[in-house]
From TrEMBL:
<keyword id="KW-0718">Serine biosynthesis</keyword>
<dbReference type="Pfam" id="PF02826">
    <property type="entry name" value="2-Hacid_dh_C"/>
</dbReference>
<dbReference type="GO" id="GO:0004617">
    <property type="term" value="F:phosphoglycerate dehydrogenase activity"/>
</dbReference>
<dbReference type="InterPro" id="IPR006140">
    <property type="entry name" value="D-isomer_DH_NAD-bd"/>
</dbReference>
<feature type="domain" description="ACT">
    <location>
        <begin position="455"/>
        <end position="527"/>
    </location>
</feature>
<dbReference type="InterPro" id="IPR045865">
    <property type="entry name" value="ACT-like_dom_sf"/>
</dbReference>
<dbReference type="InterPro" id="IPR029752">
    <property type="entry name" value="D-isomer_DH_CS1"/>
</dbReference>
<keyword id="KW-0028">Amino-acid biosynthesis</keyword>
<comment type="function">
    <text>Catalyzes the reversible oxidation of 3-phospho-D-glycerate to 3-phosphonooxypyruvate, the first step of the phosphorylated L-serine biosynthesis pathway. Also catalyzes the reversible oxidation of 2-hydroxyglutarate to 2-oxoglutarate.</text>
</comment>
<dbReference type="Pfam" id="PF19304">
    <property type="entry name" value="PGDH_inter"/>
</dbReference>
<dbReference type="InterPro" id="IPR002912">
    <property type="entry name" value="ACT_dom"/>
</dbReference>
<comment type="similarity">
    <text>Belongs to the D-isomer specific 2-hydroxyacid dehydrogenase family.</text>
</comment>
<dbReference type="GO" id="GO:0006564">
    <property type="term" value="P:L-serine biosynthetic process"/>
</dbReference>
<dbReference type="InterPro" id="IPR029753">
    <property type="entry name" value="D-isomer_DH_CS"/>
</dbReference>
<dbReference type="InterPro" id="IPR050857">
    <property type="entry name" value="D-2-hydroxyacid_DH"/>
</dbReference>
<dbReference type="InterPro" id="IPR006236">
    <property type="entry name" value="PGDH"/>
</dbReference>
<dbReference type="GO" id="GO:0051287">
    <property type="term" value="F:NAD binding"/>
</dbReference>
Length: 527
């Protein structure tokens, strides 16, 4: 009988599904890292929420583990690359707590505008202070919603009922979709300058970490009120504290924190103008039952040899197909990610060409991998191999796929053509040997680099001295070049450079390269 460990408070309905399926279930919450490491070797399945930290060290000891179910959305507490390396499937429940998080956000709008928690606390202390707690109305105030995904959209719908005009920013959402929601799509600067309340609903990625810091606060209205039910660190906490102290920020309502659990003496959590909740966005009876049932069903299915509907790190495929497809899956996902990071504006169409021996059992999953790679920079952990096509469709991305004979260049190659504001551009990749993915063309320019780590992509007029100048700027910026691949097009005199670098280049370094005469574009990408 397979054993499953439930190491966080997951709703009883989910645990019952595991037991009814004949699995041996141990519910042991509050384990220390050392305790978990000691026992994890006994289990085939693990069910968690955000409290258990499933680190590389724990996974090293997880000799039998086949599946980790995250009863919720965020998998930032799980070392997903390590799980993938060990062949452990990670599944989550991307939709189960959307309404719960949206409703808490609205609750925080009210709590913040009327100082409900502070007034409550004052009365509990035996006081009766009416003039101290004069609030503001939501009616007629402008709300700024950053991120219009599942939760952001539900929040926007609800704020409209309060008759708040809504300014929204989501670089991956089309104008028509915004219009259908009745919100005005604006750039971030316009949102910051005009919103009375700002709420963030973006995933925590490298772009959104510290999205709002001192510079952004400086352009906001005096007395702006800020809400965060997404992830700690999207507002820089030190900047928030400075803004609260200076009076720039009228109040903040925070459900999520840079480090959880929050220290009992956290100056931010204790600040009188901060309404603080301990990561309660998903904590409703309905959402907890929903996410628990969702992951329990997936754990049962996978441990009984079936497939999961929300696999985060790899498709749940029969072993034979997975074996011959896996290296191309990695390649396909990296190519999707490369296209997303090189795109200008939102990608509206993707064409995927498979050349050489690929069968449909493979291409269906490879296309999903491309779409997952394309959407993850925007949607983070809520994208998986199963929902990627539907999410692409809901964002208006037109997807086409074709298969053809072996090309003149490689035995098997995949080309992804993505259309964005600049037109249609292609990337082609192949796998060398058994498991060595390479990018071999950017448009028609031949290149050759492994799609992993940091890269700087430059498009330039093909002139003498460019390579030297760029190398010098990177060297002076402390960025070590691990490899450089230059492709030229004799016809129009342009060239592309793909520089694999050991560390990220600072925005100043990329800006200096961009300012060189003859440079057409510069992008830093992480694959
Ligand atoms: N507090 C909680 O308990 C709780 C519960 C559920 C979800 N969450 C968090 O809420 C957030 C939103 O979740 P969701 O389910 O709506 O995700 P989602 O993937 O459906 O939506 C995220 C949206 O953010 C947009 N986006 C990505 N990068 C952006 C950027 N730089 N600027 C503006 N928009 C950007 C995407 O296009 C997408 O529309 C996530 O961080 C999630 O982890 C928190
Ligand atoms: O990512 C999520 O689903 C939410 O942040 C909820 O986390 P929790 O399950 O720890 O409440």
């Amino acid at each position: 009988m397979a054993k499953v460990l439930v190491s966080d408070p997951v709703a009883a309905e989910g645990v019952a599904i595991l037991r009814r399926a004949g699995l041996e279930v141990d519910v042991r919450t509050g384990l220390s890292g050392a305790e978990l490491k000691e026992i994890i070797g006994e289990y085939e399945g693990l069910a968690v929420r955000s409290e258990t930290k499933v680190t590389a060290e724990i996974l090293e000891a997880a000799h039998k583990l086949k599946i980790i179910g995250r009863a919720g959305v965020g998998v930032d507490n799980i070392d997903v690359p390590k799980a993938t390396e060990k062949g452990i499937l990670v599944v989550n429940s991307p939709e189960g707590n959307t309404i719960a998080a949206a409703e808490l956000t609205v609750a925080l709008f009210f709590a913040l505008s009327r100082s409900v928690p502070q007034a409550h606390q004052s009365m509990k202390a035996g006081e009766w202070k009416r003039s101290k707690f004069v609030g503001v109305e939501l009616y007629g105030k402008t709300a700024g919603v950053i991120g219009l995904g599942k939760i952001g959209r539900e929040v926007a719908k609800r704020l409209k009922a309060m008759e708040m005009p809504i300014l929204a920013y989501d670089p991956f959402l089309g104008k028509e979709q915004a219009e259908a929601l009745g919100v005005q799509l604006v750039d971030l600067d316009t949102l910051y300058r005009n919103a009375d309340f700002i709420t963030v609903h973006v995933p925590k990625t490298k772009e959104t970490t510290g999205l709002i810091s001192d510079a952004q606060l400086a352009v906001m209205k005096d007395g702006v009120r800020l809400i965060n039910v997404a992830r700690g660190g999207i507002y820089d906490e030190a900047a928030l504290l400075r803004g609260l102290e200076s009076g720039k920020i009228g109040g903040a309502a925070l459900d999520v924190w840079e480090s959880e659990p929050v220290a009992p003496d956290s100056p931010l959590a204790l600040h009188p103008k901060v309404v603080a909740t301990p990561h309660l966005g998903a904590s409703t009876e309905e959402a907890q039952v929903g996410v628990a049932v969702d992951i329990a069903e997936q754990i049962v299915a996978v441990l009984q040899g079936g497939s999961a509907r929300a696999a985060v790190n790899m498709p749940s495929l029969p072993a034979e197909i997975l074996h011959r497809t896996a290296p191309y899956l990695t390649l396909a996902e990296k190519m999707g990610s490369l296209k997303a990071q090189l795109a200008r504006g939102s990608v509206t169409a993707v064409e995927i060409r498979y050349e050489g021996e690929f069968d449909t059992a493979q291409t269906v999953h490879l296309t999903r991998a491309v779409l997952k790679g394309l959407l993850v920079p925007a949607l983070g952990e809520s994208v998986n191999y199963v929902n990627a096509p539907a999410l692409a469709a809901s964002r208006g991305v037109k997807v086409t796929e074709s298969r053809g004979p072996r090309s003149d260049d490689y035995e098997r190659q995949i080309t992804v053509l993505a259309t964005d504001d600049r037109g249609t551009h292609a990337v082609t990749g192949t796998v060398f040997g058994k498991n060595d993915p390479h990018i071999v063309f950017l448009d028609t320019y031949p290149v050759d680099f492994r799609p992993s780590g940091h890269h700087i992509m430059v498009r330039n007029h093909d002139r003498p001295g460019m390579i030297g100048k760029i190398g010098t700027i990177l060297g002076e910026g402390g960025v070590n070049i691990a490899g450089m691949y230059v492709g030229r097009d004799e016809k129009d005199g342009t060239a592309v450079m793909a520089l694999s670098v050991d560390t990220a280049a600072s925005p100043e370094v990329t800006e200096t390269i961009r300012s060189l005469d003859g440079i057409l574009s510069v992008r830093h990408v992480v694959l």
